[in-house]
């Protein structure tokens, strides 16, 4: 090694040693953002660009079926999943085998539950949404540890929901405060934003200790603040949350499915989390 290169190498090593990561890791996969980060640059702490040939099972699990309105058609069936050319395809299809599975439709979705969760930070997910009657693609978050009890005590953060052929998305918070106490306007818990679903769009959230700021293509669209002097269930967003991305079908909100519109899919380009 040349002598004159040695000081530069020493500087690089010293700088790397002094660089502070923006999080503490709890239980090996919960990334808790350190205090006083708001005046510092965002740093990527976790991401997936879907450049492999299959879903990275160190990061994601295929969402199993459940009794919730959104989850009745979830499946691990390979026909609802594809990775190609650096993109993840999550599909809603007509079930080709109702003998072994009586459900009429099947849907694909992934979540990071038990593998990655974080408290505070920024999320960006670039995706393209296809339309169909009864299609309900969603990008959202749920609490990992259930700090306050069972749902809806720990809240829900819906970064993006799209219905049917709409030209808008919904960005919403749900909690005991909004669902059970019916406090949906103090403060407003939901907003909409116009979207061109023929294109890829970046759906985002900036999560601070005192507010949730939603975005579309890096433009702020809706904010939900922490409010003083109201019931404490208004702000359950002080604990780690995990990510869910799914191509849902059918439900009380979205309505029935038109089978002639299927298959339908959400195409995901990347997922990035910053702190």
Set down the secondary structure blueprint.
Layout: H1 5-18, E1 23-26, E2 30-33, E3 44-48, E4 61-62, E5 81-84, E6 87-94, E7 105-107, E8 109-111, E9 117-119, E10 121-129, E11 135-143, E12 156-161, E13 168-174, H2 176-179, E14 190-194, E15 201-208, E16 211-216, E17 219-225, E18 241-249, E19 264-274
Parallel strand pairs: 2-9
Antiparallel strand pairs: 1-2, 3-19, 4-8, 5-6, 6-7, 6-19, 8-18, 10-15, 10-19, 11-12, 11-18, 12-13, 13-14, 15-16, 16-17
Describe this structure in words.
The protein has 275 residues and is mainly beta. The protein has a single domain (24-274), classed as Jelly Rolls. The chain is 7% helix and 41% strand. Strands 3, 5, 6, 7, 10, 15, 16, 17 and 19 form a nine-stranded antiparallel beta sheet that branches. It has a seven-stranded antiparallel beta sheet with strand order 4-8-18-11-12-13-14. It has a three-stranded mixed beta sheet with strand order 1-2-9, with no helix packed on it. A hairpin with a 6-residue loop joins strand 12 (156-161) and strand 13. The radius of gyration is 20 Å and the shape is globular. The chain starts with a helix and ends with a strand.
